[in-house]
Amino acid sequence: MNAMSSQKGNTYLIVDLEATCTDAGEFPRHEMEIIEIGAVAVEGKALAQVGEFEAFVRPVRNPLLTEFCTRLTSITQAEVEAADPFPVVNDRFRAWVGGFASPVFCSWGNYDRNQFLQDCAHHRVPYPFPTDYHINIKARFAKRQGIGKSVGMKKALQLAGLPLEGTHHRGIDDARNMVRLMPYIFGQARLGRQKS
């Protein structure tokens, strides 16, 4: 985790969460808990990277990860058991967010925002961002590039001719990949002719 001094203007905080999950109904969706926060901060017209945050989180409602969750995310039981619980990690994340001028929460879709709201409510801790303003960069990518419907991050990378880097469904790696798509979301980059 590191944060660099903020500059004037908005800072886009590209955030990706991983959470407890199941494909066999072991627990309801409203009991999913964050197990990883991955975030990358970018600033200015050049969308220059100015910081990163990455932390595992120990779940308390369903402390044992399902086999599906471990297979999907590659996050192990040992990693979450060694981690701090959400209130502690959230405090560290809030401090990191607070190090930037006018931070704007961005994520691929609305899931990450909703999961933060759910975990903050359950643990009765403050929402980590200074306002509830959130940019769904999945929808913005589709609109900006005129592709009609929204697509997953992996498909967006393919459309942009960019290889997926790191491990898909790992918070920090997915956040870093989203940063690579930022020129197509907030900049002037345009997709070439692609098959959909």
TrEMBL record:
GO terms for molecular function: 3'-5'-RNA exonuclease activity; nucleic acid binding. CDD domains: ERI-1_3'hExo_like. This is Exonuclease RNase T and DNA polymerase III. It comes from the Bacteria. Keywords: Exonuclease, Hydrolase, Nuclease. GO terms for biological process: DNA metabolic process. InterPro entries: 3-5_Exoribonuclease, ERI-1_3'hExo-like, Ribonucl_H, RNaseH-like_sf, RNaseH_sf. SMART domains: EXOIII. It holds the Pfam family RNase_T. Residues 11-191 form the Exonuclease domain.
